[in-house]
Write a structure and sequence with these properties.
10 helices, de novo design (two linked rop proteins), about 260 residues, mainly alpha, DNA polymerase, domain 1, globular, about 5% strand, 2 domains
Length: about 260
């Protein structure tokens, strides 16, 4: 995959993104020092992000040229996962680890900054681009369309009206095979049945996991809360497949907020 150099405006946005990412990575790694039994996947994500950050500004100077966008794309993908894991940790596990108030506040504040910066990112043909402030405001002011998209990236879900067909025994609302389409524009992910989720997997070219998701009765609400460890328990061990699913779930959540 060949990247393109960042524009002058993107380079300005990049500085804020790097600052936010560096802060969250730092606080997660500091947390691991005081919490030796911290989940290894959580720590590994922070370590991966730190390695990418070092590649982007070795010796404290940001690199130039097309390779910067490739590293940015890698960083955004791992920061989306780290955001998801940090959010889960704060909601579900912070009290179990008896965090000091300052530790919890640092994590929450840095996470908030990362979320804000991630909203400026969009995926186009497998690469990450920054959205300018004007574009972001214009996007928010546009009326909602019946399309859930990341800006031309891999995970595009198009709404279509359902054909007249009976509901399946698994609670599906009638998805057309292999297209990843939602049954109608009023159906949100919270209303998906397990057959809807299975069709969504087809749209990601991950239909090999259909039966596993159906047998575990993964419906819309469960899909949105899946963690990396859950995906592994579902039999998904390929890193690329895990990332693809987590990326798609993240995009669904982001488009729901828009």
């Amino acid at each position: 995959m060949h990247g393109s150099a960042l524009t002058e405006e993107e380079n300005l946005i990049l500085i804020g993104f790097l600052e936010a990412a560096t802060a969250l990575v730092r606080y997660v790694r500091l947390l691991a020092i005081s919490q030796p039994d911290l989940d290894q996947d959580f720590y590994n994500l922070a370590t991966h992000a730190s390695a990418v950050l070092d590649k982007m500004h070795p010796g404290g100077k940001i690199i130039a040229g097309p390779s910067l966008r490739l590293h940015l794309t890698d960083l955004v993908h791992v920061m989306r996962q780290l955001h998801h894991e940090t959010e889960h940790f704060l909601k579900e596990k912070a009290t179990l680890y008896n965090l000091r108030p300052d530790q919890e506040e640092n994590l929450a504040t840095s996470l908030s900054h990362v979320v804000s910066e991630l909203r400026k990112c969009t995926d186009v043909n497998g690469l990450v681009y920054f959205i300018s402030l004007d574009e972001e405001m214009e996007k928010k002011s546009r009326p909602a369309k019946h399309t859930l998209s990341s800006g031309g990236g891999l995970f595009r879900l198009k709404f279509r009206r359902p054909e007249s067909r009976p509901r399946s025994s698994h609670g599906s609302r009638g998805l057309s095979e292999g297209c990843g389409a939602l049954p109608n524009s009023n159906l949100n992910v919270q209303q998906w049945g397990n057959e809807d989720v299975a069709a969504w997997l087809d749209s990601l070219q991950l239909g090999e996991y259909r039966d596993d998701f159906i047998s575990h009765d993964i419906r819309g609400p469960e899909l949105l809360t899946l963690e990396r460890r859950d995906l592994k328990e579902l039999g998904i061990h390929k890193v690329g497949h895990i990332k693809r699913i987590q990326q798609a779930i993240w995009e669904i959540k982001e488009n729901a907020r828009a």
